[in-house]
Recover the amino acids of this structure.
């Protein structure tokens, strides 16, 4: 089954609706809340399903195509299903010098996925990320909201253990 | 106490000897790197400068003070802050104005704003309050990258504390001045740090840069006069206003043409990687040897970058250059963010540049052709050279791209920043690039570039 095609109608939850309405009032123009609205949907569902653009566009009073344009521009908005945990590996030149490619290789060995891929059990999605600003502790990575520094290949297994 | 969390920004800046007179940005840092909340911040003379600015100084005086201090932007470009402020329209009827803080710290090898926001959130709030007063901005946004989770938490808490204490909101400190401040978190993309792309992103659009002119001071967010300043820049404002221009101008080393202090750092395989607040004009050698402790045993310094991915590579002999714009300018590149990277002898320059250009190519917004198509082209060539499958033309093609993506030829500074390290790497380490040409490669034919 192709999970990328959604046939169910998308309906925002009341909580999502309220959160988006709340965000709108921080700006002169409701459009400004489009990124935050996508993040609200993603927080509740892990990713942004098709149909969310229509629902968000309706609240903000902008075309769904504009919302979709924003959704596809920003790297932290996911337009396809991702794993329960997101691993973001910093790929700055500082982390390169620190050996981040060997960390990515170790993750590939343990999880069977490369950058941009999700494990078959939907536990992890592995992504590259712009410099995490943790350069004195390179290589750095994030798992969900937690930031780690001085990550070496032999520490990867223990690091992943906490995220089931 | 529950909620005590070790912040990732803990480092040498917390440990070196600091004083209020010499370390205006970092003297309030705690040894344990916990955030300095309102009570402690006020005990450490926090918001005294804001009180002075709001009760004793005319708005024009604040602008003039910052102009006279010589403060320059700390985001990497080094544009004089007072001049930028002076571009805001004098027309009083344009009374909806915005102050944006560029907290989208994503420049590779830059970890200074994270430390300030995580540990000294009130310093930024105070800096923005004073700056907003000077610029007559009624509202401010801190454009923060989404990955800085702790910074978002701490800034939001600081804003709540400041609101409750009457330091934000209506009629601040009885001055009649109103200012509200919001944290806006981003959703990725390096280009959001470009100030007009940041404005588009804040408006909820794709973060493509805008054409200049008009400059944001005339037509910014929602078409209104807008000033965009970096976190560290704004954090300099309270001490300048509080202690005065003469004091500020005494901070830097006499050899420096820039004034004040700068968060400087060294990373890579050095003994003591970290971040320190230092006066402009220290030598890179002092930063590298005395603060970072030189290279770790078994590693030799091959080259270094003075301030972020967009600055050029320099050789060990250039370490005597002084850390200020003109000092680094003399050896052929820019100071950038002032957080340097040591590249050791185990690193292949071709592979390093391949990594860097992969980043720049991925982060190109795609708006203008040279950047969108030129950067992936450079990646393709660098990957071939890395596999020793390059052709005889490859180095000329790379140098052609360095030229065609250089300053003035693209819509914004993204591509020029991407090719500056590439050009310098080829200049200093050409033989490493030549070694990537396949031994069976056909001899070079006519170049594909005509000079621009």
């Amino acid at each position: 089954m192709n999970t990328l095609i959604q046939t169910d109608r998308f309906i925002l939850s009341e909580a999502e609706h309220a959160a988006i309405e709340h965000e709108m009032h921080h700006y002169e123009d409701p459009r400004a809340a489009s990124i935050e609205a996508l993040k609200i949907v993603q927080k509740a569902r892990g990713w942004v399903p098709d149909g969310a653009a229509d629902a968000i566009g309706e609240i903000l009073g902008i075309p769904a195509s504009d919302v979709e344009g924003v959704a596809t521009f920003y790297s932290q908005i996911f337009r396809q299903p991702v794993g329960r945990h997101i691993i973001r590996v910093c790929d700055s030149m500082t982390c390169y010098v620190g050996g981040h490619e060997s960390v990515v290789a170790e993750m590939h060995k343990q999880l069977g996925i490369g950058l941009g891929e999700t494990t078959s059990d939907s536990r992890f999605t592995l992504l590259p990320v712009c410099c995490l600003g943790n350069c004195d502790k390179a290589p750095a990575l994030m798992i969900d909201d937690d930031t780690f520094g001085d990550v070496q290949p032999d520490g990867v297994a223990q690091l992943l253990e906490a995220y089931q | 106490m529950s909620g005590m969390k070790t912040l990732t920004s803990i480092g040498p800046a917390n440990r070196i000897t600091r004083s209020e007179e010499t370390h205006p940005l970092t003297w309030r840092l705690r040894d344990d790197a916990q955030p300095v909340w309102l009570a402690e911040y006020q005990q450490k003379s926090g918001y005294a400068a804001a009180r002075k600015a709001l009760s004793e100084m005319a708005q024009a005086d604040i602008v003039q003070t910052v102009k006279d201090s010589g403060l320059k932007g700390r985001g990497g470009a080094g544009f004089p802050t007072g001049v930028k402020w002076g571009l805001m329209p004098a027309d009083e009827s344009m009374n909806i104005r915005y102050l944006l803080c560029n907290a989208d710290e994503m420049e590779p090898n830059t970890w200074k704003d994270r430390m300030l926001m995580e540990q000294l959130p009130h310093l930024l709030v105070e800096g923005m309050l004073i700056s907003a007063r000077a610029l007559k901005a009624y509202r401010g946004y801190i454009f923060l990258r989404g990955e800085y989770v702790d910074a978002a938490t701490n800034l939001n808490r600081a804003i709540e504390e400041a609101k409750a204490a009457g330091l934000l909101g209506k009629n601040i400190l009885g001055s009649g001045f109103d200012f509200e401040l919001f944290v806006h978190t981003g959703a990725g993309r390096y280009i959001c740090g470009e100030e007009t792309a940041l404005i588009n992103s804040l408006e909820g659009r794709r973060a493509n840069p805008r054409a200049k002119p008009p400059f944001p001071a005339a037509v910014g967010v929602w078409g209104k006069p807008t000033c965009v300043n970096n976190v560290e820049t704004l954090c300099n404002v309270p001490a300048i206003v509080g202690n005065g221009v003469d004091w500020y101008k005494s901070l830097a080393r006499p050899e420096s043409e820039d004034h004040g202090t700068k968060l400087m750092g060294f990373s890579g395989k050095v003994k003591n990687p970290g971040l320190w607040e230092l006066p402009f004009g220290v030598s890179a050698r002092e930063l590298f040897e005395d603060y970072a402790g030189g290279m770790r045993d078994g590693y030799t310094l091959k080259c270094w970058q003075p301030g972020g991915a967009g600055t050029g590579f320099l050789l060990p002999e250039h370490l005597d250059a002084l850390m200020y714009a003109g000092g680094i300018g003399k050896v052929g590149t820019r100071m950038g963010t002032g957080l340097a990277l040591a590249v050791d002898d185990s690193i292949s320059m071709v592979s390093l540049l391949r990594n860097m250009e992969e980043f720049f190519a991925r982060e190109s917004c795609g708006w203008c052709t040279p950047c969108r198509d030129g950067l992936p082209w450079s990646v393709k060539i660098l990957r071939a050279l890395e596999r020793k499958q390059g052709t005889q033309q490859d180095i000329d093609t790379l140098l052609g791209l360095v030229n065609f993506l250089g300053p003035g030829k693209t819509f914004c500074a993204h591509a020029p920043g991407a090719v500056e390290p590439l050009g310098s790497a080829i200049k200093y380490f050409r033989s490493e690039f030549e070694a990537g040409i396949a031994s069976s490669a056909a001899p070079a034919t006519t170049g594909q570039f005509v000079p621009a």
Observations:
- The interface with chain B takes residues 26-29, 31-36, 38-39, 60, 62, 66, 69-70, 73-77, 88, 91-94, 96-98, 128-138, 142, 145, 147, 149 of chain A (CB under 8 Å).
- The longest strand of chain A covers residues 85-90.
- The two ends of chain A are 25 Å apart (CA to CA).
